[in-house]
Amino acid sequence: MAAYEVVIGLEVHSQLMTQSKIFCSCSTKFGAAPNSNTCPICEGLPGVLPVLNKQVVAFAIRSGLATNCSITQQSVLARKNYFYPDLPKAYQISQYELPIAEHGWIDIRVHDTVKRIGITRIHMEEDAGKLLHELPEEPAGKYSFVDFNRCGVPLLEIVSEPDMRSPEEAREYLVKLKTTLEYLEVSDCNMEEGSLRCDANISLRPVGTSEFGTKVEIKNMNSFRNVQRALEYEIDRQTLLLESGEKIEQETRLWNADQGMTFSMRSKEEAHDYRYFPDPDLLPVIVSDEWIAETRNELPELADDKKQRFIEDYKLPEYDADVLTSSKHLAHYFEECVSIFPQAKMVGNWVMGDILRALRQRNLEIRDCPVTPAHLAEMLALIEKKTISGKIAKTVFEDMFTTGKRAAEIVKERGLVQISNEGQLEEIILKVMADHPGPVAQYCDGNAKTLGFLVGQVMKATQGRANPQLANSMLKKKLEERRQA
Amino acid sequence: MLLTVPERFTGFPKFLNNTQMRKKFMDLYTCTIRELHDKLRSGEVSSREITESVLARIDEVEPVLHAYIRVLKDDALAQADNVDEQLRKGDIELNYLTGIPIAIKDVFCTKGVATTCGSKMLEHFIPPYDATVIRKLKTQHAIIIGKTNMDEFAMGSSTEHSAYGVTRNPWDISRVPGGSSGGSAAAIAAGEAIAALGTDTGGSIRQPAAFCSVTGLKPTYGRVSRYGLVAYASSLDQAGPLTKDVFDAAVMLQAISGHDPQDSTSIDMPVPDYTAALVPDVHGMTIGIPHEFFAEGIAPEIEHAVRNALTVYERLGATCREVSLPHTDAGVATYYIIAPSEASSNLARYDGVKYGYRATEYVDLKDMYGKTRAQGFGSEVIRRIMLGTYTLSSGYYDAYYLKAQKVRTLVRQDYEHVFKDVDVLATPISPTPPFTIGEMADDPLTMYLGDIYTIPVNLTGVTGISIPCGFTGDGLPIGLQLIGGHFEEEKLLRTAYAFQEHTDFHKQQAQVTR
Amino acid sequence: MKISEDQVRHVAQLACVELEDVQLHEISESLSTILLYMDTLNEIDTSGVSPSSHIGKLETVFREDEVKASLAQDEALRNAPDRAGAFYRVPKILE
Distance from first CA to last CA of chain C, Å, rounded? Predict the structure, then answer.
C-alpha cells in the first residue's frame, strides 16, 4: 500500500446567495413549484439575451481575494456547448480562458501541521435544471422529467491544484473552503440542497516519482463524509489494479453511498468536445482597480483571524476557539452571548456542549437555534445568581430549546427555583434523617460516607432544587449535632 | 370635395363605385409613411382606410408573391380601429408611425403571434413576449400587419430557404427577391406594407432592398436592441428598416433605436433626431470609392449604375475619391466562419424539449435529438450548423474560428483607417442583379460569394444603406450601397436622402404581373 | 481543407443531427468546397493581431440583483412538445 502516493484535486461548485439568477431576474429560491421560477431567458426561448447580475461578480471577487487569488481585470464569459435536457440553451454560460480569479491558495491544518493548497482558478457560471426520473403520477419507466427552476442560478466553480495527498486532506480542504465561503456570506454551502457540490480528481503514483498517474474523476459525493469515503474506496480500487499490473482507465465514476462503491459512468463516456468560445451576447467583465481595492477593504474577518482573536480576547483554549470559529454563525452566536454575559469560558462550554448537542439531535443549524444568545445569557445569569443550580439548568435549557420559552418563565412555572431558605431546608433535612435512621446511625458511628447518600436524598426530595452546597453543610451540621447528642 | 369617410367602412372594393374614391383609397398602399402621416394628421384618411388599402393589395398580389408567412388581417383592422378611436378621443399622440401598417420579418418575437423564422422547427412556436423593437413600434401605435417570409433562421440570400415556400421578386416573378429579409423587401416593393422590419447579418436587409428597389438600412451594431430577435449570429445581427424612401427609413430608425438594458451589446448613447438630419446637401462631403469593390466579377450594368450614381454626387458638390480596403476579399471567408460558428451554438436550443418541433418517432433521447433536428431544419441551416460545429471543434478552432476573428480585426482596422479620410463609402450591393429562382440551389459557395459587398459592414459593425440607383436593360433593380462609420447614421441618411431628392429611381413601382 | 465523411459523421454527432448517408455525402462535398475557400485566410498574416470577438465598446453591462416576476407556470410550459403536469417530458435518460 505504502508504495503509492495519492494525488487529489477538487472541483467545488458553490451556489451564490443572490436574490435573482445570474442572467435574468427570476428568483433563486429553493423548493418552488416546478417550472415556476422561469422566464423566457432562463428557459432559453428564441431571441432572449443574458444580462449579468453584478452581485455575482462582486461575490466572485470577494471569494477570489479571500482565497489569495489574483483577480482577472478583463475576464470572459464563454459558452460550453453540449446537449442535455436540463440545459435549455444547449450551452452553459461559463468561463474558460480568462476566469474571474486565478492562482490562489488556502491553508489547511492536518495533524497539527499547516499545509498550503493551491487554487488554480475560480470561475462564474450558470447552473442547469433538475431532472427527475419518476413522478408520483408517472412511475419510473419510459420518461424523464425536467424542471428548469434551478437553471441560471449562479455558481462559483473553485478548482484546486492537485495538492492533496490523502482523503483527510481533501476533507480538511473542503471544510476550510466551506467555512471561508460562509464567512464571506457568498454561499450558504448547504450540501443537502445542493448549494455546495464537489467532484474529485484522483490518481496514484509510485512514491518518489513526480509524474502524475492516470486520473479518475469522481462525482456524486453529497457530503463531506462521502467525499472521504469515496476517495478511500477509490484508493483501494486503484491500488489493487496497479498491484495486479493493470492500467487505470481515465474515466468518470459515480459514487454510490449506499453500496459504498464507485461505478464507471459508461453512458457518459462519449467523447466530449465542448467547443468553448466567447459568448457574443456578453461583453468582457471589466473589474476596475477601485472595485478590487474596495472589496479587499470590506472583506470580513475570516476564521483564522477570528480564532486568534478569540484566544487573545477571551482567553479561550485553542481547541475552544477552533470549535467556536468553525462557523461564522456559531462564532457570532458566541460573541453575542458573551456581550451580555461576559464569562467567555462558561458561555463557550454551553455553546460547544449543550447547544451543539441539541442542534445535532434535531438536525438544526445554529442559525435556527430556538434559544437566542440573549436567552442563553439570561439563563447563565440565573446560574450565576444561584437562582438555579447547574444541574437544574440542564433541564431548564432543554425546556427552553423545545418550547422557546425564557429561562425565568420556566423556572417559575415549574417551581425550579433553588431552595436556599434555611428554614425550608431544615424541615426537609429532618424528614430525610427521620426516614433513614440506618445511614444516620452509621454516620454517627464514624462512617462519613453516608453523608453523600443523605445529601442525595435531600436533592431527591426537592427534585434537585435544594442548593447543594447549603444542603451539604446544613446536613453535616445536623448529623454532627446528633453525634454529639 | 372628398367626402369624409363613413364610420363603418367595410368591404373595400364593393363599397367603391366612384372612380375618384377608388383612386383615393387604391393609392394609399403606394404612399410613404410621411405622406400617410400627413393624411392622418389632416383627417383626410383613417388608419382603418390605410390598413384596408394595404390588406386589399395583399389580397391582390400575395397569391403571386408570397411575401408573408402570416397576415394578421383581423388583428390589424382591430388595431387600426383602436388607433382611430384613440386619436379621435385625443388619448394618444399622432406619431409618425401611428396607424401605419408595418410588416415584421418573422424573426422577431411577437407576443401571442406565431414566430417561425421560416422554419418547420418553430411552426407552432408562440412567444410569450415581444421583442424590444416590436414593443417600441407598439408604443407608437403602429399597425403590425403581418409576419414576412425569410430564409430559414435568416440563413440565405434569396428567401428560397424558407419552410413556407419561396417569395417572388415583384419586378420579375421568376426571380428571387434576395434574402434573408426577402419577404419584407418584396412586401414594400409591391405595396403590401408601408414599411417593414428586417434583420441584417451579412447583408440581409440591404441586398433584398437592392433586389426589390426599396430602401434598406442596416444600423450600427448596438444601435438597435437585439432582444427578441431570434439569433442567427449574435455578433453580426442587427435589426433595421426596409422602406420606400430614406425619409421613412429615418422615421423607422428613430422609432426602434436606443439602449436596451436587456441587450448587453446595445449601446447607451442618445438617439439623435434622424429626420432633422435629412438635409439634401452633400457639398464638401468626401465619398470614398473602394476600388476592391469594383474588381472582377461585377456585372457591367451594375458597375455602370453605381458609377453613374457617383456622378450625381459629384454634380451635387461632393468629392469622390478612390480608396482602398485591402481585406475586402477576405470578408466572405471570415464571415462564413464566424456566422456559422455562432449559429451552431445559437441553434442548439432547438432540441424538441421546450418548444418547437419534435420528431414523432424515436427510440431514445439521442435519437429524439437527432431526428428532431434533422427533420426540423432545412438543408441550408443544417449545412451552416455543421460548418460552424466543425470550425469550433477541438483541433480546428485555432485554424478557423480564431483565425477568422483575427482577420475580422484587420477588416475593422481597414474601415477605421478609411473613415479618417472620407465621410461615407459608396459601393455596389451585389455583384449581380436578382438571380432566377433555383439558380443557386446547388451552389452554396457561389451564393455566399454574392455577399462580398455587404459582409464587411457586419464584420466591422458600421452602418450601411441600400438605395435604388438604376435598372438593368431587363428592368431589374440595382442598388447603391452607402456605408457610414460607427453611429454615423445621420451623415449616412443625409447622403442617401440627397440622392433621392435628385433622382426618382426609388419612385418607380413594380408592376406585379402573373 | 477537405473533410471526410467520417469527420462529417463525427461533427453531426456533436451537432446532434441524424443525417442519412446521402446527406452525409452531400454535406462532406459542399463543406469541402467551402473549407477549401476558407483556407485562403491562411494567406493573411495575423501574427500579433488580437481577435475581435466583440465589436463596439468594451464596457461591462450589469443588472442589479433584483427579483422580478417569472412567467406563470402554464405560460412557461405552453410551447412544450410534451409535458407531464408541470414538467417537460423527455425520453428516459439513462444514468
Answer: 38
Q: Residues B274-293: what's their mean pLDDT?
A: 96
User: What are the boundaries of each domain within chain C?
Assistant: 1-41
Say yes or no: B267 contacts chain A, CB-CB below 8 A: no
Annotated active-site residue B184? The verdict is no
Active site residue B204: yes
* Neighbouring subunits of C (3+ Cβ pairs under 8 A): A, B
Which residues from chain C sit within 8 angstroms of residue A57, using beta carbons? Answer: 62
Name every residue whose Cβ is closer than 8 Å to that of residue B443 and which is 6 or more positions away in sequence: none
Amino acid at B374: A
Residues of A in contact with C91 (CB under 8 A): 142-144
The model carries a pTM of: 0.89
Match domain C1-41 to its CATH number in 1.10.10, 2.60.40, 1.10.20, 1.10.357: 1.10.20
For residue range A289-347, list pLDDT tens digits in order: 999 999 999 999 999 999 999 999 999 998 999 899 988 889 999 999 999 999 999 99
Does residue B17 have a pLDDT over 50? no
pLDDT at B18: 52
Count CB-CB contacts under 10 A for residue A483: 12
Q: By the CB < 8 Å criterion, does B125 face chain A? A: yes
CA distance B237 to B346: 12
ipTM above 0.90, yes or no: yes
Give residue B222's identity as a one-letter amino acid code. Answer: G
Query: Do residue B407 and residue C57 have CB atoms under 8 angstroms apart?
Result: no
Positions in chain C whose pLDDT score sits under 50 = none
CA C7 from centroid of its chain's CA atoms: 17
Alpha-carbon span A385 to A420, nearest angstrom? 12
Strands (E), B366-500: 424-428, 463-471, 477-484
| Cell 471561508, located at residue | A180
